[in-house]
Amino acid sequence: MRHLFGAIAASLTFLALPAIAADSNAPAFENGPVWDFAQIKTKDGHFDDYMHWVATDWKSQEEALKKAGVIMDYKVYLVQNPRNDEPDVILAQEYKNMAIFDTPMAQQYALQAKIAGSVAKANQQQAARSTIRTIMGDPMAREAILK
What we know:
- This protein is an alpha+beta fold.
- It has a single domain, classed as Alpha-Beta Plaits (2-Layer Sandwich), CATH 3.30.70.100.
- The chain has four helices and five strands, in the order H-E-H-E-E-H-H-E-E.
- Strands 1, 2, 3, 4 and 5 form a five-stranded antiparallel β-sheet that branches.
- The longest helix is centred in the first third of the chain and has 24 residues, at 2-25.
- It starts with a helix and ends with a strand.
- The mean pLDDT is 88.
């Protein structure tokens, strides 16, 4: 009887080996959402001006993008004690995945027109903000969901 139980245990071990081997080759994470981080350096004396724009116009734009299903969420981060060549504000947008970036340009422009008016108007507003801030970078990162 002991030999029968031993044989059963051994056969179950051999059956489990392929599953164990497969798991050791599997990644330890899954692809998560994509984050875009606009790194902003406000010009001296204009931090409050820029934050007013963020709290009004930018927030409205982000809420409209969220409602349209373009982004999942957005956040504003303030960098404490940035060095000379570092941003002091980071504007973050969360996207479900990279597929959103394959949206046809005509559809993107139509949504922008609905949110902010014409492309020309948006470009003028963008240029006007250059008097109070500088865009330092715009890295994009995919979140890794650990298993």
